User: Fold Aldehyde oxidase GLOX from Hibiscus trionum.
Amino acid sequence: MSIPTFVFSILLPHLLFVSQQCHLVLASEYHGGRWKLLQTSIGISAMHMQLLWNDRVVVFDRTDFGNSNLSLPNGRCRNDPTEAALKRDCSAHSVEYDVPSNKFRALMVQTDVWCSSGAITPDGNLVQAGGFNDGERRVRVFSPCRSRACDWQEIPNGLTARRWYATSHILPDGRQIIVGGRKQFNYEFIPKSIAAANTFNLPFLLETNDFGAENNLYPFVFLNVDGNLFIFANNRAILLDYVKYKVVKTYPTIPGGDPRSYPSTGSAVLLPLKNLKRAAAIQAEVLICGGAPKGSFFQASRGNFITALNTCARMVITDPNPQWVMETMPLARVMGDMILLPNGDVLLINGAGSGSAGWEMGRNPVLSPVLYRPDNKIGSRFKTQKPTIIPRMYHSSAVLLRDGRVLVGGSNPHAFYNFTTAFFPTELSLEAFSPAYLNANFDSLRPRIVDPKSMSGFTYRKRITIQVVITAEVSENSVSVTMVAPAFNTHSFSMNQRLIVLSDDKVKALGNSAYSIEVTSPRSRNLAPAGFYLLFVVHQDIPSQGIWVKLQ
Ligand SMILES: *[C@@H]1O[C@H](CO)[C@@H](O)[C@H](O)[C@H]1NC(C)=O
Ligand SMILES: *[C@@H]1O[C@H](CO)[C@@H](O)[C@H](O)[C@H]1NC(C)=O
Assistant:
């Protein structure tokens, strides 16, 4: 792990020279971030991750493949006669990782959480849905606490249908929708009310279900700014009015027709939402990158690892005549993650250069993240970043942290924990990728939020004032305020990931490097469902540390 740090320190004097000459050179333009190993082992492999408002990350794996490398505390064990591997299991399959102290503790799940989904409620609880075997109809709640006492609560029969490889999304009314899963061509809502106790058919999921490889799993779901849901599966998308249970729009197939959702496993983001002042002017754009060409899953099962897709497809989903625009990535990638950074850039990270998602099916790890700058001209949007030395293959994960780093973990392409195999042994480590904006060279540009420290009572359509300190001179139009929803990440998709650029900012110099920034909070729950967000002040592309705000 010392190699990337070493390279970085050699480059430092040169970078200092550059930044002294020209402050306006963007952080991402001339060097590629930094990697740090945080933990060699957290005892489990990070298949699913979610950051919570107390800066702790809930991590979980699966329960049905024997012992993990972490014991449950106080001699606790799980007795489960339905479990495939161990009927009595005294090891943990979930942990809570505390970011500021870099410490973790074991959590206890009662049933199998393998390949499940999740979202955060407006009051900040993690709601996880489904899984495998005895976990397939469970809903589980994790209520964050300041102590070390909180743990998973399970709701038996919380789901109407079995959900394995489904996608959860938070809705403007505070409920969650759970879409699809294996052999489930329907959706449902939680929590249940009498009116919505059932499942609702979605033939689109049947139409996008390829035989042999069901390329419609873990569909990419985004809440559009009009309140409808954009749902992408395989190689195309629809817009669903979930209130009237009606498909209101069918989008074109991505040119080339290759599948992008699981197990072809590209990734997708809703690009930053901005220009919020006039509702009619708000565009929503979706970017889908990488994946595996049609037939890769089948070929990989026969030992033929086809090169991954190197294309991204971008579409304005609010356009009356929407079309995909294709772009080429510097590196082909399957099983990558796409993470929205506080400054609106997209980080492509993790994954493989060939093969498919599935047991033993990936090859050629892609060790270098790639930055995508959505507002650059087409053709100059991608920048390759510094590589890690740890492959992050099938069942790896990544989430944005409040300090602007990206937490990376997991990778286990085997049906069991396997530390002896030559091909990508099970990874129990956690790393952090620090994008270039965290480099100390940019400290003079970096805003520091002095007031407030956090915000409750953050309501819709409200003028709010943030006080920051910025040492360097602040020019007009160089400051913005962004809000990022903490996402539930698994299988290369970040559910509920969303970045809103607040509008109407007025920057006022207060003297002594202090500034007050006035912005308007989001105008509606369709733009930003109620709940916890990380709020950042960004100056010349360099973000502050975030503060937690609770939008309500
Ligand atoms: C996990 O435990 C196994 C068996 O107990 C051991 O061989 C392996 O080295 C451990 N791995 C890590 C990363 O701690
Ligand atoms: C780990 O992988 C090796 C090599 O493929 C295999 O022989 C062994 O059975 C595997 N162990 C487990 C526990 O799956």
Notes: The chain has four helices and 44 strands. The pocket of 2-acetamido-2-deoxy-beta-D-glucopyranose (ligand 2) is lined by residues 414, 416, 418, 420-421 (CB under 6 Å). The CA atoms of residues 34 and 434 lie 5 Å apart. The chain has a mean pLDDT of 93.
